[in-house]
């Protein structure tokens, strides 16, 4: 992986390490989603679910790790930032035997190993560029993580798009196609990490108070309407429009291993100290093999 691209994320993790208290509402919302999903998936015996994968675990401020450890036997933490995950393990000695660290790992592999030249659309590079986009959109990216009951993407999409931006910039002729490849690859990788019937919780930041000051004072109740307005005004981070992602999930639902149902979760606020983000989520349940469960179309509510 390229140290310049990786370093940006490691530095951000160092800067945000002290924000545990500010993250409270964000963490509570994510934990509600994880806990209700674990309850839905638990069998009648009330046994714990076997495993959960946290993509972009970082400092793990956006989850309550001891509470997650109550719900799942094994917790897989995946991130490029090995030192952040090591600190998490050291801070939770009582749960160390349940934690599995996959780091340094590029969730969007090969993204963090690419160079600008890989994306040139010129005749003599076209075939290579197409292969790079295929690799980004492929479902085979995250090695050594076994199939899990639940996979959570912790605001990683915007970070990966940030890396793409650092690599080639938004004005590059291949940027839009590379972004689409990266995003669909992320959704496919979440699904491929799930056991049949498992649930992916895709959480994404969509806009910050840097461009939408209203977020500073908005109440939780005002968030759905506010985010709808901001999206209509095209005031959101590139590649994070929920309607577009929902349409991509709909396409993936045609696959035998695609989503069975997708529920949209109302947006909430993520307080990052002097900046506030709007965050939304999708709860995506993977299909059971044909014959086990009737297949249904993606439902959005
Ligand atoms: C928004 S942070 C998530 C917050 C984190 N869960 C916490 O509480 O500190 C996104 C995380 O994704 C990681 N990340 C970004 N791009 C990545 C990539 N391509 N592969 C693996 N991890 C990545 C960053 O290192 C960071 O820890």
Describe the structure.
The protein is α/β, with parallel strands linked by helices and 301 residues long. The protein has one domain (3-286): Vaccinia Virus protein VP39 (Rossmann fold, 3-Layer(aba) Sandwich), CATH 3.40.50. Helix content is 37%, strand content 22%. It contains 9 helices and 7 strands. A 7-stranded mixed β-sheet has the order 3-2-1-4-5-7-6, with helices on both faces. Strand 2, helix 4 and strand 3 form a beta-alpha-beta unit. Helix 5 packs parallel to helix 7. The longest helix is centred in the N-terminal third of the chain and has 18 residues, at 24-41. The site of S-adenosylmethionine has 24 residues, from helix 1 and helix 6. Residues 9, 13, 16, 56-62, 79-81, 105-108, 111-112, 154-156, 159-160 line the site of S-adenosylmethionine.
Count of individual helical segments: 9
Radius of gyration: 19 Å
Mean pLDDT: 94
| The CATH class | Alpha Beta
Low-confidence stretches: none
How much of the residues is beta strand, in percent?
15-25%
Produce a short descriptive summary.
By secondary structure, this protein is an alpha/beta fold. It has helices spanning 3-16, 24-41, 65-71, 82-91, 126-137, 157-168, 175-192, 223-232, 242-252, and strands at 49-55, 72-78, 99-102, 148-154, 194-208, 259-272, 275-286.
